[in-house]
Amino acid sequence: MASRMLIIADTHLPKRARRLPPEVWAKAEVADVVIHAGDWVSTELLEELERRTRKVIGVYGNNDGAELRARLPEIARAELDGVRFAVIHETGSATGREKRMDDLFDDVDVLVFGHSHIPWDTLTPGGMRLLNPGSPTDRRRQPHCTYLTAVARDGVLGEVQLKNVTAR
After folding, report:
1. Which top EC class is named for this enzyme in its record (predicted)?
2. What is the pLDDT of residue 110?
3. How far is CA 107 from CA 62, 65, 104, 127, in A?
4. What is the pLDDT averaged over residues 58-68?
5. Which of 1, 32, 135, 168 is most buried (CB neighbours < 10 A)?
């Protein structure tokens, strides 16, 4: 068995964009799981993802209001094909992030986070993988809007690819 994933964060819909780019929707519709690391801004994207995809794992972010906070946790946890995931929006400063996250999430293999809009893919000293997909709708100071795809299979996370949004 394998779980194909789309990993996104910081969509800020409809404030930063009116909708997700078509290529991101295409990936969402074939993914087994869509992981969203917060800052949805409105419930419409959550509801549409729930309608159009197989499974959504999401958390709320600092820009998400009461309705999203009522429906989503601050931290989500899931095991996908033997890989233990946690999802959170904010992890604080990049300085010391790996050590802090090892201390806070010593029981997971992969921590997905957002907030900075800066793609991130590192291993902590404890061996946990930290992933930030950037944003598919708001690149801020990055050269491109981005998202991640990955596959969990037999307890291993593989095929992790950072993708640039090619058209909006």
Report:
1. hydrolase
2. 98
3. 25, 29, 9, 11
4. 97
5. 135
Confidence class for position 81, pLDDT limits 50, 70, 90: very high
Q: What is the mean pLDDT of residues 36-41?
A: 97
Q: Which residues contact 142 (CB under 8 A, 6 or more apart)?
A: 117, 118, 119, 134, 135
Element (H, E) at 116: none
Please work out, in degrees rounded to the nearest 5, the angle formed at the alpha carbon of residue 87 by the alpha carbons of 68 and 7.
90
What is the three-class DSSP state of 168? coil
What is the torsion angle, in degrees rounded to the nearest 10, for the CA atoms of residue 22, residue 15, residue 73 and residue 146? 40
Q: What is the CATH number of the domain that holds 138?
A: 3.60.21.10
Residue 38 belongs to domain spanning: 2-164
